[in-house]
Amino acid sequence: MASLAEIEGFIAPEAFFELDLGDEDFRQNAVDRYASLWATRQPFYARRLGIPAVVCSRARDVREVMLNPSRFVMKAPKLPGYESFDIFGGLESVLQMDGDRHGRVRRLMNPAFSPASLPAIRPAVERIVKERLDAIEATGPHFDAMQDLCDHLIVRSLLDATFQLNPTQQAAFERVHRAIFAMNFRPGQARPQEYTEAIEGARAVIADLIEDRRHNPRDDFISKLISARDEGSKLDDAELYGQINTICGAALGSTATSLAAALYLLGRNPDQFDMLKQDHSLIDDALEECLRMHCPGFFFFPRFAACDTEIGGTPVLENMLILASPQAANFDPEEYEQPGKLDIRRKPKPLTFGAGSHHCIGVLLAKMTMRIGMRAILERFPGIRLADPAFRPTYGGNVGTLTIASLPMWLS
């Protein structure tokens, strides 16, 4: 089993990409510069906050990582220096499970995210969208599509409509979300105090939620998780804690960024935006194309080599960090003609939500929420546009995420 020091010694210093992937320069230029540059590049070595990693950015290499869970695992090795990969503070998430256990927990979670579960949620999401657009119209015509619309819309659609949490409970998970996405510490550094306090606060809220739903079950996600069975097996309390924290806390940012990114890309391509405004039947295809062009994260959740192996001709040591990039893979010219061009009639099949057994479990809910939001925006404000036609986002979040900080727009 290779140690971090052995992994360091395995790679010649000159073989590393020149920037640390945690550097601000990389974050701010990841979409516009590195996605297309790396889309045809053989897997290569880089550092993520000082930790050596193999970066996979061609579509075929990303799929190889996604579709070979026996070679590339989600659970981080217990190595000195890898502590930062426990982003949930000891609460084990389905995102960090492998093999039979992952399959069992995933099967127990599936009913809560199935197509059959969406019609019950849809009216509440539509109500929340209308309320947000009412508020924006009342203070318009200038607004921030990320801060005034997408952030609020997704938080309320998930935490209120889907999970039926009260405002105090919602605030606790919003705090977890902010703390997780501010985690950018290197090996040897202590966890931020805000992160520790946020996780402890979430634990207390989750305990209350489980107790309440066991005695007063509802037709909601948490009640379904508690009652779900797989061949007689149920989620134990530790598993419930981990999955509730993952879905209610960690998952908030991706859908918000995806809807904001769609508005941004369409605003930067007014011919495509005009086409969509004139034909709302293109909404699904347009959103899919925007998800291809701008992922919520430049990298997927980290994986680790389970053995000495290779990817695309690049040697990999056991325990090495593997970073697969859907953002770059979606620009691979072997997959798409003119990959840098937004074409809402393209009908792409992007890797944005992953592939294989760890394909995003909430993808149907996310796409439904985006679809409802986009349709309502276009019907209500057909003249919507970017405040600055040449606007370029500033990105925040933890390493590898592409959280849009602000998106100034005009209603007409």
UniProtKB/TrEMBL annotation:
Listed GO MF terms: heme binding; iron ion binding; monooxygenase activity; oxidoreductase activity, acting on paired donors, with incorporation or reduction of molecular oxygen
Source taxon at top rank: Bacteria
Record's keyword terms, sorted: Heme, Iron, Metal-binding, Monooxygenase, Oxidoreductase
Taxonomic source organism: Sphingobium baderi
UniProt-recorded name of the protein: Cytochrome
SUPFAM superfamilies for this protein: Cytochrome P450
Family per similarity comment: Belongs to the cytochrome P450 family.
